[in-house]
Amino acid sequence: MSNLGNMLRISNTPASRVWFSSDFHLGHNKEFVWKNRGYDSVESHSAGIINKVNDVVGENDTLFFLGDFCLNSDESMFNKYIDSIKCQNIHMIWGNHNNPVEKIYKREVSMKYGPGVKVYPFRYKNIVFEGDYIELFVNGQILILMHYPIDIWNFMKEGGMMLCGHSHYNYPNTVKDSENGKVLDVGWDGHGSPYSFEEIMFFMKNKNVKQVDHHVL
Predict the structure, then answer these.
(1) Which of its termini does the chain have fewer beta carbons within 10 Å around, N or C?
(2) How far is it, in rounded angstroms, from Cα 39 to Cα 47?
(3) Rounded CA gap, 140 and 67, in Å?
(4) Three-class SS state of 99
(5) Helix (H) or strand (E) holding 83
(6) Distance between CA 54 and CA 72 in Å, rounded?
(7) Rounded to the nearest 5°, which phi and psi values hold at 204?
(8) pLDDT 10s digits, 87-112
């Protein structure tokens, strides 16, 4: 298989597992978010998600987070959230709700490289900022990561899998049981926990390789 040279490569092993999630919405003060997820307040919602992440994702594991980490939160709250997560390797993609995270990113990059500069990957504490998109190679499997679901992605015909968020598990094409392409919404609403790499492979095995343009098999 060609053109894999620029991919981020990582191994999923028992000592260092790979996880995926999206759309935590920590601090989001709208009832339709925290109440629909079974919590009785915005505070219990934020604490519950962080506790669940810490239950399954280890300090030496890698968590790919596909956008919308927090809302209605200032910088001190964001720092409190990430300091409470024990995983030290969180690769974060931008979503459509990026404040105050993007503000911190811009300031930290500006201090190191100058104003107006974008640098990816860029580490801040236990977060590695990756921009809008990642092409990932895990144990021989290609994974395309973006906050928004797309219908045509790179390496689609080779069985590359599209992982996304954004829709809060409301888009039929990206749910676990859909066979319409190897695409999956890994957001919190569809699973209530980060997805392990093994779970991704399990849910994708019954999904079809979709052909929608001239890039045929």
Answers:
(1) C
(2) 10
(3) 25
(4) coil
(5) helix 75-84
(6) 23
(7) -80, -20
(8) 999 999 999 999 999 999 999 999 99
Report pLDDT digits (tens) over 118-140: 999 999 999 999 999 999 999 99
Domain around 29: 8-204
- Residue 144: what residue type? I
The pair of structure tokens assigned to 185 is 């919404």
The answer, yes or no, to whether residue 72 has pLDDT greater than 50, is yes
In the predicted structure, residue 6 carries a pLDDT above the cut 90: no
Q: Is 2 within a domain?
A: no
Answer whether residue 210 is part of any domain.
Answer: no
Q: Give 214's contacts (C-beta < 8 A, 6+ positions apart).
A: none
Please report whether residue 214 resides in a domain. Answer: no
Residue 147 counted as domain residue:
yes
CATH number for 186: 3.60.21.10
Longest CA–CA span in the chain (Å) reads: 50
